Amino acid sequence: MLISIAARNLTRQRTRTLLTLASVALGVASLILARGFVDDVLWQLREATIRSQLGHFQVFAPGYVDGARRDPLAHTLAGPREAMAALHAIAGVDTVAPRLSFPGSLSNGRGQVPVIVEGVDPAAEARIGTSLTMVAGVPLERASGPAVIVGEGVARALGLHPGDTVTLLAATRDGALNTLDAPLAGVFRSPFKDYDAVAARTKLDDAQALVGADSVNSLVVLLAPGTSVQTAIVAARHVLPSNHYDIRAWWELADFYQGTAALYRRQFLVLLVIVSLMVLLSVANSIGMSLHERRGEFGTVRALGYPPGTVFRQIVAESLLLGACAALVGVAIGVLLAWGISAVGIAMPPPPNSEVGYVATIRLSIASLALAALVGLVASVAGAILPARRLARMPIVEALRHAV
Amino acid sequence: MLIRIESVGKTYQLGVQTVTALRDVSLNIEEGAFIAISGPSGSGKSTLLNIIGLIDTPTSGRLLIDDHDVTGRPPEVLAHLRARAIGFVFQTFNLLPVLTAEENVEFPLLQFRELSTKQRRERVAQLLDLVKLSDHARHRPNQLSGGQRQRVAIARALAIGPRVVLADEPTANLDHRTGGRILRLMRRINRKYGTTFIFSTHDPRVLEIADRRVDIEDGTIVRFGVRTGETWSYAAERPASDRDDSRDDLK
Fold it and tell me: Running DSSP on this structure, what letter comes out for residue A332?
């Protein structure tokens, strides 16, 4: 009967109940939208990170990640072909792209800029680098013979255009200087300005010839959609012993993503606290007013022999019911708004360290809906606890002075 | 003795002032009595009724029910005693507005876990029949007249089979005719079932049908009256502790 009485009490003052329900529901909906927006921003950043540079995980020679800056060629993989074959055999692995990266410089005869040279397998990189956009010329896989593509920042620094002849200059493993003359096939833009300002890519064979190496220093692995990164890494660690291979997930290599994600999550946490407080105060105010008017009623309940705990539970039950209804309504509103906003899209300016804008949507997940609903429910109940406690402890005679 | 009040005093704070609502009140009430506590507004009759009903606590003195001292018992114990032994009829009816008449009558019975739903419903039906409101069982309080509400309140008070029903100005919000009917109903119940009724009132009609009266002024009992035919025979106030039960003025 407790729930039945609670439900009837909620319908007794429809306007007030609806107003309280609306404020809780709007709080829940706003949390869904805010969380959905943050999730989408992070998802897009994650995809851009994975599909422009990092893949889902990479395999290095031990010591490369920490020592590459000093001497990348000193940390090349032993037996890269066997490692690639082993990785391909893992369920869910879509592409394995070998890379040889080392510092060098790029010159067009008029000027010279420092670059990070990446020797890549063009066909494999084409599958991974879907976030790389060619802004001029053609991608590496469509160029015949030795060729170079550079990031937009490098091209801008030297005034390069497709068809220009450029010279890559790098130190060999033995310390000698070597050069590669090749035509500039194209200019690309990634989501990361810093990368575009230093990146120069050439075919793996040409890069190996340039530095006199026959190996690579990383294998970039792209997984098929729906494959768990962690599961794939566990499988990779199983087939590639750790004394010869250092396997790192993309997030371990993405400092910018980590920083951005931490910032957004903190902002969302602040919003979560603010919305929770708003819901809590709204419910506390509404329940407080309602209980103030119903003091006589609860005095009667106590006079009829019900202990203070029953009064407390009755009030909390009403808030719980109100919070549950409001959470459901809030989720429905949030989902509808998310669909509507996502259909239109939110045009976003280029984020820091990027020149590429994007269209954000509201990304829904069971976890975000559940969290928003839970916040609405908990804040509703929490808002009622103090008024309920106060009323349950009020002397019966004092409560009864306020006639029903 | 059903209820024994021994030298009860009640004071409370009103801002910086200490107000004395009752002073040294002693009273014995036997089972089956139909007793009116009478006095002007502010005389302390409602406070006395509240103390007897265990919804207020005395500042001094003792309250005994069935010779058990209940003074200073914890709220849970007092709540249990109220639930099992005391029925209330309020001046403003105090029905729960979201419940129907039958649900209001059933409400105190929900504390009796030993009763099945069927037993509860049967008892509610009997009580609504007793107060002649069977036809209005599904009506909510706002669909009932003042008299009907008070009859529902009486049925609710009787639902638990109380030892005593406390009625605080039960006719104050009713018209003359309806008030008369309500009083006759309670008198009939008192005679038929032996239920003890204690009224706080200044309605002369209550005094007309009461068999005992306690007149109270400024927080002090000024006289006890026992009906003898159409008149009252009065006795001077004396604390119950000074007397034995055989000499009780109310007997």
Answer: H
B55 vs A: CB within 8 A:
yes
As a whole number, the mean pLDDT across chain A is 89
Other CB atoms within 10 Å distance of the CB of residue A47:
13
HSE of A270, CA atoms in CB hemisphere, 13 A: 5
Give SS3 for A10.
helix
Instruction: Answer whether residue B239 shows pLDDT above 80.
Output: no
Chain B residues inside the 8 Å CB shell of A296: 92, 94
Judge whether residue A11 has pLDDT over 70.
yes
What fold, for B3-247?
Answer: Rossmann fold (3.40.50)
* A308:B111 CB<8 A: no
Q: For residue B232, which amino acid is it?
A: W
Each residue's pLDDT tens digit, A15-74: 888 988 998 899 999 999 999 998 998 898 888 888 877 899 999 988 888 776 667 788
Distance from CA of A6 to the nearest CA of B (A): 9
Does pLDDT of B232 surpass 50? yes
CB A368 within 8 A of CB A43: no
* Residues B78, B54 contacting (CB under 8 angstroms): yes
Nearest to A404 among B56, B95, B103 (CB): B95
Q: Could you say which of A5, A303, A306 has the minimum Cβ distance to residue B98?
A: A5
Backbone phi, psi, residue B212, to 5°: -135, 150
Provide the ipTM. Answer: 0.89
Q: Which two tokens stand for residue B43?
A: 């005389």
Q: E-strand spans in A56-92?
A: 57-60
The answer to whether the CB of A342 falls within 8 A of the CB of A37 is no
Q: Is B1 helix (H, G, I), strand (E, B) or coil?
A: coil
Residue A9 scores a pLDDT above 90? no
**A-chain residues within 8 Å CB-CB of B96?**
5, 297, 300-301, 404
Q: Is residue A354 very low, low, confident or very high in pLDDT (cuts 50, 70, 90)?
A: low
pLDDT at B247 over 60: no
Q: What is the pLDDT of residues A283-292, one digit of tens each?
A: 788 878 888 8
Q: Which two tokens stand for residue A158?
A: 């030297």
Helix (H, G, I), strand (E, B) or coil at B76: helix
pLDDT at A272: 85
- What pLDDT is stored for residue A159 in this prediction? 93
Residue B246 reports pLDDT greater than 50: no
For residue B245, what pLDDT band results from cuts at 50, 70 and 90?
A: very low
Tell me if chain A has a CB within 8 Å of the CB of B74.
no
Q: With CB atoms and an 8 Å threshold, state whether B82 touches A303.
A: yes
